[in-house]
């Protein structure tokens, strides 16, 4: 009898030991192991949502050319923007033929012919465009990045021309086989005939002939905690804190660092010792950047992807946050509205973002009108001085107050050297 009891007790002790070992290695069922390699990260809990890269690839603006030097512009998530873009996403494009951009007089085409331009702002790699549009595989074309798609039909011609503009600037690709008729294009163009008229200036940017109405808002904010963000990057037990003279703080595990600025609501993460993973490409960098944000903080709104040029093996991937139909502009005195990642061979070496997010309840709103016409053109010229203007569009300038974040409606000016100015 005693031997039986001893055996049962021994079995119980062994079972308890196994259970204890399990919980030492694993937190709870469904969570990540505590035991990790030095390059692993802890999954972030109770933060922003995960998103797919395809939801962040869309044109910065959609321009409709009506002929007779008349134009209009639709901005993301507006009714006609969504209608036209969704229909074009269902069409098929094939038979790509390479040509030089100077082969056609684009200024004349914009002025005289009916057409639609999808302007992406920065180059989008073709493999990413294929995630949102029906673009046939083509080895030569798939190595390109596209910043503009131009569809038009010349007068007295029963054909729709579809051109994809390379970010290089001097190369275009025509889709010789496009599942789009002249009548289809005309129907899309007709959506813009009763909309706000715009004037094309210097064959580059568009100025409305009438005032644009926008909603200015003050939004209540929440904030992800520093502890949450720390846990997503480091093992807190081996993290030390360094306070800088400028008031910022740095948390580090001796290899990676997390700098906290702007009253503890802006972070800058760096990992300079990331191991090389082999060959890379802009589309892989973009997809890896999305995955990294999904794992480290997540998303707190709608974002549009922007890719910078790859230099010295590094590439910047930016995500521009939108409110309503317009982008929130990052400004020097209050960083908000963007996430910026530095990628090397598909791996994140730098990551900047705000820890603030806006709440949908307790909003204060008012309708305002932005400058237009000749007044706006004069302001733009004064701000640009002698620099070449590449884009003009409405946006929101954020500022922080006691009631939350206020989004002020503004015109945003982009110059050839990459400078972004908010017109006062």
From TrEMBL:
Return the InterPro entries for the record: YycH, YycH/YycI_2
Q: What Pfam families does the record point to?
A: YycH
Residue stretches making up the Regulatory protein YycH domain: 3-417
User: Quick one: signal sequence residues?
Assistant: none
**Name this polypeptide is given:** Regulatory protein YycH domain-containing protein
């Amino acid at each position: 009898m005693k031997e039986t009891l001893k055996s049962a007790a021994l079995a119980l002790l062994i079972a308890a030991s196994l259970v204890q070992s399990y919980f030492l290695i694993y937190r709870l069922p469904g969570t990540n192991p505590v035991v990790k390699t030095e390059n692993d990260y802890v999954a972030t809990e109770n933060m922003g949502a995960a998103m797919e890269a395809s939801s962040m690839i869309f044109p910065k603006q959609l321009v409709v050319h009506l002929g007779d030097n008349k134009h209009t512009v639709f901005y993301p998530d507006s009714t006609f923007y969504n209608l036209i873009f969704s229909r074009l996403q269902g069409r098929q494009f094939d038979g790509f033929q390479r040509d030089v951009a100077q082969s056609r007089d684009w200024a004349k085409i914009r002025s005289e012919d009916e057409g639609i331009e999808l302007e992406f702002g920065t180059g989008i790699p073709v493999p990413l465009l294929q995630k949102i549009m029906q673009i046939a595989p083509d080895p030569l074309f798939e190595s390109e990045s596209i910043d503009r798609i131009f569809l038009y039909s010349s007068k007295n011609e029963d054909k729709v021309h579809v051109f994809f503009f390379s970010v290089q600037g001097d190369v275009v690709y025509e889709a010789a086989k496009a599942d789009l008729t002249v009548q289809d294009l005309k129907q899309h163009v007709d959506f813009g005939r009763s909309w706000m008229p715009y004037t094309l200036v210097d064959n580059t940017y568009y100025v409305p002939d009438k005032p644009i109405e926008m909603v200015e808002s003050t939004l209540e904010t929440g904030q992800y905690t520093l502890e949450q963000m720390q846990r997503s990057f480091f093992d807190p037990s081996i993290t030390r804190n360094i306070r800088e003279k400028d008031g910022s703080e740095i948390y580090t595990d001796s290899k990676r660092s997390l700098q906290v600025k702007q009253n503890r609501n802006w972070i800058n993460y760096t990992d300079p010792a990331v191991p090389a993973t082999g060959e890379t490409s802009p589309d892989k960098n973009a997809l890896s950047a999305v995955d990294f944000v999904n794992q480290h903080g997540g998303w707190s709104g709608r974002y549009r992807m922007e890719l910078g040029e790859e230099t010295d093996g590094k590439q910047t991937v930016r995500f521009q946050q939108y409110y309503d139909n317009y982008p929130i502009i990052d400004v020097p005195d209050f960083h908000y509205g963007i996430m910026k990642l530095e990628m090397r061979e598909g791996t994140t070496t730098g990551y900047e973002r705000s820890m603030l997010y806006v709440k949908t309840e307790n909003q204060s709103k008012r309708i305002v009108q932005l400058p237009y016409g000749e007044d706006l053109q004069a302001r733009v010229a004064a701000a640009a001085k002698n620099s070449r203007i590449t884009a003009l569009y409405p946006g929101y300038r954020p500022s922080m107050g006691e009631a939350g974040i206020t989004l002020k409606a503004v015109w945003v000016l982009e110059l050839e050297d990459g400078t972004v100015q908010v017109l006062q």
